[in-house]
Structure formats: C-alpha cells, structure tokens
Amino acid sequence: MIKFDIITILPETFGSYFSESLIARALKKKIIKIKVHNLRKWAKDKHKTVDDRPFGGGLGMVMKVEPIYRAVKSLKGKSKAKRRIIMFTPRGKKFDQRLAYKLSKFDQLILICGRYEGVDERVAEHIADMELSIGDYVLMGGEIPAMVLIETVSRLIPGVISKEELLKERITKDKGFIEHVQYTRPEVFEPEKGVKWKVPKVLLSGNHKEIEKWRKKYLRVIEK
Ligand code: ADE
Questions:
Q1: 2-154 is a CATH 3.40.1280.10 domain
Q2: What does the domain layout of the chain look like in residue ranges?
Q3: For 79, how many CA atoms within 13 A lie in the half-sphere containing its CB?
Q4: pLDDT one-digit tens code per residue, 2-43
Q5: Which percentage of the chain shows pLDDT scores above 90?
Q6: How far apart are the CA of 140 and the centre of ligand 1, in A?
Q7: Lowest mean pLDDT: which of 28-32, 76-80, 215-219?
Q8: Which of 38, 111, 196, 202 shows a CA-CA span of 20 to 30 A to 101?
Q9: Which residues line ligand 1 (CB under 6 A)?
Q10: How far is the CA of 194 from the centre of ligand 1 (A)?
C-alpha cells in the first residue's frame, strides 16, 4: 500500500477532495492511505510559529526549517519504507506522467507544501529528495500540487480505477500516455436547427480493423 503524508499549514483545504470521488473509494478499500499533517504541530513556541522574516531583507515571510525538519523526521519514523520526500515549488522539476509511474512504486511519499513567499532553502538542500513543479505558473502554495500528484499517482495503483479504464490507456514503451479520441451517443447532435455535429462514420461501421487504423491516426499523446 502506498501512503501519502502531506505536511501543510492549511490542512482543511484537503477535506472534501479526499472524501469524494475515486480517491475516497480507494481510501475506504485501503488501497492507498493519505494523512494530512498540520505543520504547526511541530512548531515549538507558544504561538506555533512556522514562518519568519528573510535574512538579507525582502518582502514577505519565509517558512522555517526546524518545524519541517521535525515533521519529516517524525513521519519517517523508524521504518525502512521505500520513500521519497517531495517539496513543491514552481522552480522544481516538472511533474509528468512518467514520473507519476515511478512514484507509484514507492511505499511512502512525504509531500511538503510550501506557502508564504518561500521556504528556507535548507529544506531543499538537506531534507527533500526532489523539488517538483506542476507547471510554469505560480500558485499560492503546494496544496493544489499535492492533490495533483496524489490523484495522478493513485490512479496508477491497481484497484483504484477499473482495469478497463487503465487498459484503455495505451502505455507507450517509455511509459508515456496516449489517449483515444472518443464519442458516444447521439450519432448526430443538433445544437441548433440546421447545425449537425456528427460522429465519424468509421466508428459506426463495425469494421474493427478500420476503427483501429482510424484511432491510431487520432491518438492524443499526453507525454512522450
Ligand atoms: N508552488 C507554487 N507554484 C507552484 C507550482 N507551479 N508547482 C508546484 N508548486 C508550486
């Protein structure tokens, strides 16, 4: 079973996301495990401080290294689980389908969600195994990236989605991902009078060879 440990200062943002959909079913079936941890639990002072002003000056606050260090240490425990410690930042390596496959083979993924204007660089230097970005844009924190990673990795774990669904995705040699173009009823949709949106004829022909050929022509390559 794969376990996701999320370290965040906004634990509530994950609530409805994990209690709905296929993720909820996978949690119930104990195929995956997700634990959301409030970073403030590892803050030592009275005010549960997890951020401070940047050395050298500058705008905004920086997340402190000590609470994150204590959080990761405690979540690692004594286990020798095959794990990765991941920090989300827009500067990181781009997260993609191929990496999702690799990560789906681990026992534990500890996900550090940064907030404020940044995280003390010592977290990247000494604590995290990798820094990941989900795209070239700046979010306000790592919570949405953590959800993106959990959803992408979880659906690759056997039993989370149906076999049929997974087989439908043709996994290319280098674990890329390709998807068919698809249609369903009605054969002809008339959004307004005189306008007809039709399903390609070949798909209605029953000729499997021709259908295969046509599908190959219209594959969508998500990741090469
Ligand atoms: N934190 C802020 N922006 C991010 C991004 N694009 N990817 C991952 N983490 C982030």
A1: yes
A2: 2-154, 180-222
A3: 13
A4: 999 999 999 999 988 899 888 999 999 999 999 999 999 999
A5: 81
A6: 7
A7: 215-219
A8: 38
A9: 88-90, 133-135, 137-139, 142, 145
A10: 46
